[in-house]
Write a structure and sequence with these properties.
alpha/beta; FAD/NAD(P)-binding domain; Enolase-like, domain 1; 5-stranded parallel β-sheet; 24 strands; globular
């Protein structure tokens, strides 16, 4: 006889989004069943953000040795031991794994059921011999990596952005198919670790980010030896006895590249296969059949079922965590809310780092026409950047006419930390001129936020009405 569980909430998937939902629900006292068929922690811990950042950190140390001469420190070209680089990545994962361990979750009161979940009707799902009839369900099944339809690709071995993190050997020439954040992060990391790298993307690189800021990051990546081929298409892959042939078309020109390895780093898509969604009355989005049809509050067409994180079309851990709180408040407390996607930072861990929050210049122009203002500050005018020879960067603040902060973007050292300051200011409803009152350590990159506030204030003072008010005060004084 099958076991029957009747929790308040059933979460399908124990990645970042699923774990955030489960823990938030337990904080409200709800009973929670968490279903997972693989490893707790999901891709972010085992094959995504964490191991990728660990690899980027190792590559940064190699690059630091090359850049030492400018500081009066001479060093030979670094000797890379890929086995030990891989060991470093594994050690990071091992150190973080206990945060997602079954024992910790069970101590919080989360019941874990191992296996693949399938909906059997609108109100229940099964996991092996267990049937779960929850009051509410959350799909947190993460994303999968689609394989592009390139003739010949299936005839050669290739890496994905997940499997390459298991590599323990030096690569001769890595051809990266894809031009998003993960593709560029891995491309620069491997170049710094001594590999020839070519990046091919059939559109612009780092699409969706501010082109001015993205251009700064891409210029540095190219200067370090990565060959960037935007608006180019891989038309065929040729298996050879030695190496791999990669046919590339750029406009009317054709070229055949000699590669040793291929990395497929296309944009991830929701992993929804095997759930039998139709049995639960869950429909897909007509505009994009790969995505679930979701309400602004992340409900599916079955009001008992929500989606979070990659399963909801998201692309970041921080977005999933923000969504989790909204879902739990709706599912457990019955409150009506929707996640504010613009308040979630977007980060590319290249060097220099690129981070944005809120509206960038293009989005501001679409939404506000000419009713917005852009304030800039260069890293070259920051004393901390000068001391570190890290003047390769720019910060932009986007405001409306009243000074309300609509968004910010930074490319340079500590960009993600600086964007956190702008996130706090936006959440608190601070006007741009209030940034000038921040007392930042000296010298520090945080001073860039202060300078942006001062620069915005100078622009306000130049307005005719403000100048008239100042002149009036002079007369009265």
């Amino acid at each position: 006889m099958a076991d029957i569980l009747t929790p308040d909430l059933c979460v399908i998937g124990a990645g970042s989004g699923g774990l955030a939902v489960a823990q938030a629900a337990r904080a409200y006292g709800a009973s929670v069943v968490l279903v997972e068929k693989a490893r707790l922690g999901g891709n972010a811990l085992h094959a995504g953000a964490i191991p990728a950042r660990a690899l980027v950190a190792a590559a940064a140390h190699a690059q630091a040795l090359r850049d030492g001469a400018a500081f009066g420190i001479s060093a030979d070209e670094p000797k890379i031991n890929f086995r030990k680089v891989h060991d470093h990545v594994e050690q990071v994962i091992t150190a973080l794994a206990p945060q997602n361990a079954a024992g910790r979750l069970e101590a919080l009161g989360v019941e874990i059921v191992r296996g693949a979940a399938r909906f059997i009707n609108r109100k229940a799902l099964s996991v092996g011999d267990t049937e779960i009839r929850a009051r509410r369900f959350v799909i947190a099944t993460g994303a999968r990596l689609p394989v592009p339809s390139i003739p010949g690709l299936d005839a050669v071995p290739y890496f994905t952005s997940e499997t390459i993190l298991d590599n323990t050997r030096k690569l001769t020439h890595l051809v990266v198919i894809g031009g998003g954040a993960v593709a560029l992060e891995l491309a620069q990391a491997y170049a710094r670790l001594g590999t020839e790298v070519t990046v091919i993307e059939n559109g612009p690189l780092l699409a969706g980010f501010d082109p001015e800021l993205a251009g700064v990051a891409l210029k540095r990546v190219a200067e370090e030896g990565v060959t960037l081929r935007p608006h180019a298409t891989v038309t065929a892959i040729q298996a050879r006895s030695m190496g791999i042939g990669v046919a590339v078309q750029n406009g009317e020109a054709d070229q055949l590249l000699d590669a040793s390895h291929i990395l497929v780093a296309a944009e991830r898509m929701p992993n929804l296969s095997g759930l039998d969604l139709e049995k639960a009355g869950i429909r897909m989005n007509k505009a994009d059949p790969r995505l679930l049809l979701l309400s602004p509050g992340l409900k599916t067409s079955n009001p008992r079922v929500y989606a979070v994180g990659d399963a909801a079309g998201g692309q970041s851990v921080q977005a999933a965590v923000r969504q989790a709180e909204v879902i739990v408040r709706s599912a457990i407390l019955g409150t009506m809310a929707k996640p504010d996607t613009l308040r979630v930072p977007r980060v590319v861990s290249t060097d220099p780092e690129l981070a944005e929050i809120g509206l960038n210049e293009a989005l501001a122009r679409t939404r506000h026409g000419v009713g917005f203002r852009v304030t800039r500050w260069s890293y070259a005018d920051n004393d901390r950047a000068r001391t570190s020879r890290a003047t390769y960067g720019l910060a932009k603040l986007i405001t409306d006419r009243s000074g309300k902060i609509l968004g910010a973007g930074v490319v340079g050292p500590g960009a993600s930390e600086l964007v956190a300051l702008f996130s706090f200011a936006m959440t608190g409803g601070l006007r741009a001129d209030k940034l000038a009152e921040l007392v930042a350590p000296y010298p520090s990159y945080a001073e860039i936020a202060v300078r942006l506030g001062e620069e915005f204030r100078r622009g306000e003072i130049a307005k005719p009405l403000i100048r008239q008010w100042i002149n009036l005060n002079k007369l009265l004084g």
